[in-house]
Amino acid sequence: MSKEKRSHDGGNNNNNNDRNKKRKFKVSSGFLDPGTSGIYATCARRKERQAAQELGLLFEEKLEEIYKDELAELDAADDNTEEGDNNDDKKKGEQELSIEDQIKQELSELKDHDKKTTLTGEKKKDPLQFIDLDCECVIFCKTRKPIVPEEFLHKIIESLADPTNMEKRTRYVQKLTPITYSCSGSMDQLIKLAQRVLAPHFHNADNPTEYKFAVEVSRRNFNSIPKMDIIKQVVIEATKGGELGHKVDLKNYDKLILIECFKNNIGMSVVDGDYSKKYRKYNVQQIYEAKFNDNHEEDANEEVRT
């Protein structure tokens, strides 16, 4: 009897282990289209929605602050286009449409207006749009013109790291990663993506500076290309097969090439050396904790002096 109990318990333990393994490797149902630009964010587990709300408020504020002039130009261009279209429609309506047809046209215009709005109430052409990746601890904010992800995020991090700014803007958000462009998960597309993203930084004929650089790859639910194959190919593209004087330096780099692989999508961007040295890999939680500790030490030193 005791042997049967032990074997029965052992079977239950094996079943529990199998269930835990299944839970551990959860496959996400969300996806990103090739050509997408934006910002990845990691966050506390099961706090994805709250983290998106926090970032949404922060990004909206900084969007108006950083791209105020560009947004005004885009709004003006849209207004001019809509005004021209409306005038043309009015002229056609006066000349051709009956009252019944005019009513139908107005209803059609209302439907078109509704189609331009997403389920969250955001217009499809809004510069910021959060996409549900259905992935634990990860969210993504898609960006459009006039936002340049690396520039936008660097200015936000710079502001958050300001030692005079002790306001904690986020509770659940952790690390932020810009994505200049993205492609589908194949080697051919990766090469094209690397050529596009790396050219302004490494292949600028007007500024032929030789950089020390490194490559950092993060993969989630991605197995299309081995990690080392991605790194080797990106190094080849950055140096143009060794023709340029750029050198790989994993510790004291001037430029860091960030690569985020999610399902069948590969995103890429380039950040400066202050990414890890000064701004703690854009981890807003660590940035705030460092500021708080520094401020606490200064207060303690002042008390000792007095």
From TrEMBL:
Residues 72-86 have a biased composition (Acidic residues). PROSITE patterns: THUMP. Residues 1-36, 70-97 are annotated as: Disordered. Coiled coil: none annotated. It comes from the Eukaryota. CDD domains: THUMP_THUMPD1_like. InterPro entries: THUMP_dom, THUMPD1-like. Residues 161-272 form the THUMP domain. Residues 87-97 have a biased composition (Basic and acidic residues). Keywords: RNA-binding. GO terms for biological process: tRNA acetylation. GO terms for molecular function: RNA binding. This is THUMP domain-containing protein. It comes from Naumovozyma dairenensis (strain ATCC 10597 / BCRC 20456 / CBS 421 / NBRC 0211 / NRRL Y-12639). The gene is NDAI0I03160.
